[in-house]
Structure formats: C-alpha cells, structure tokens
Amino acid sequence: MSSPRELLLPSTGTTLFDDFISNDAVTDNAIGQLGWQFTTIGTAATLAYQTSKQHGVLRITTASNADGDGTVLHSFPDGLVLKPGIEFGARIGYPVELASMNFRVGLDDSVTATRPTVGIGFESNAGVLTCVNDSATEGDESLAVTGHPDLTSGTTMIVAADVDFKFVCSGKANAQGGPSEVDYFVNDVHVAKLPCGIDDDEPVEMKFAVWQDSGGADAVAIEIDYYQLFIPR
Fold first, then answer.
1. Helix (H) or strand (E) run with residue 4 in it
2. Are 148 and 131 in contact (CB under 8 A)?
3. By Cβ atoms counted within 10 A, which residue in 128, 141, 156, 227 is the most buried?
C-alpha cells in the first residue's frame, strides 16, 4: 500500500480498514469494525474473533455438514466501481490445514463460490494461489502464482504462515474507463501484472469468500487478520 500518512489524507482519497478487533461474539450481520454482512453458502459457518491475538483476527470454520459449505463476507454493496489508483491489501492464513479449504479475496460481485462476473483479487484452491480479474464485457484474466520464495514449491501457502495480499490498479484508464492493468503482490513480492478491461460502471463489493470442497462433510478453518482498501478521489 502507499504510505499510511498519504492514505489518511482525505484530499487524496478514502481509506477503509478492518483489523477485526472485538470482544463480542459474531452473532449478526455487523462483523468487524466495518460492519461486514455475511451470506451463507450451504450450511452456515462458525465465525469467531480470536481475542487472544493482539492485532485482531477473525476465524471462519466451515460447518461439518456437506460439500461446498462456506461463507461470504461482503461490504459496500453496489457502491464501488473499479478505476485506476485503487489499492487493496489483506492478510490471510490457514491455521490448521490446507486440504479442501478455498478462498477468494478482493473486490467482486459474487456472493457464492462461483468465480465472479466482475472483480479483481486473489483465489486460493487449498493454498494454491491465482491472481484474477474479470469483466462482464471485456473478458477475464488470470495467472497462477509461481516461484515465490515464501510458498511451498513457489505456489502454495503454508499452514500457520499468514500471507499478505495486495493489488494495485495501475496504469491509465482503459477504453471503458476502468483500470488498464493490475499489479499483484504476495508478501510484497510482485507476482503478476495483468491487463484489465473492466468498465468503470461495473459495480463490485469488498469481498472475502471461503468454502470447502472435500466432497463431503468437513470442518476446516481460515483466518483473516486485516482488510484494507484505498479509493482515490
């Protein structure tokens, strides 16, 4: 992200940040400091603040009921469009195991496990990472993360080792008014630069979607430490 001082200046843009610090149980659609809503995929997951962790962490554990169970956290409904200068960051980890647990994080229009029609972000399939951006009219782009020094075989997250994700909508506006390219970073290592055709009137939301695909009932967990978004003026 840009320097904290720059991001906090209202003249440069709006900074949204959630560190998931709370002593309360997660009991309603007002999660974290930003009041995230959640949508259930299949059977409801268990959401719990990890109050023993100083910087605030939210753990999501899927229900041990059926294949595909999960939860989608979403905020800023239909009030956000993508344009040059937007920056996103989040820290996510697998606390217990990688197998069967998947996530998608960033900005998009999907509240299911299905890849969005419009959006920019990262996908994890049991820890294997991919950078993505999708447009309803101009096509989709994706690139698997490879050769990363902090990942197993350069591609896969490690249990109990949180990862920082970041993307920057860089370059000039494309022909549709959205960002022309997106730079992706994992633990501050540049892992991809993808062209982007997203229109500046395709609405998205802040998003963190998790689900398991074990083929049956399975309770698996994932944790999010923070979520940050900078929207330039």
1. helix 4-8
2. no
3. 227
Architecture of the domain whose range is 17-232: Sandwich (2.60)
Element (H, E) at 179: strand 179-186
Smallest CA-to-CA distance from 23 within 33, 13, 15 is with 33
Q: Where are the domains of the chain?
A: 17-232
Asked whether residue 52 carries a pLDDT value surpassing 90, the answer given is: no
Return the amino acid letter for 162: D
Higher pLDDT, 2 or 65: 65
Whole-number Å distance between alpha carbons of 117 and 136:
5
Residue 78 confidence (pLDDT): 67
Rounded Cα distance, 112 and 42, in Å: 10
As a whole number of angstroms, the distance between CA 112 and CA 192 comes to 25
Whole-number Å distance between alpha carbons of 17 and 229:
6
> How close are the terminal C-alpha atoms of the chain, in Å?
16
Q: What does pTM read for this prediction?
A: 0.93
- Whether 27 has a pLDDT exceeding 70, the answer reads no
CA 231/CA 187 separation, integer angstroms: 21
**Average pLDDT of the segment spanning 185-190:** 97
pLDDT range class, residue 22, cuts 50, 70, 90: confident
Tokens of 201: 């009137």
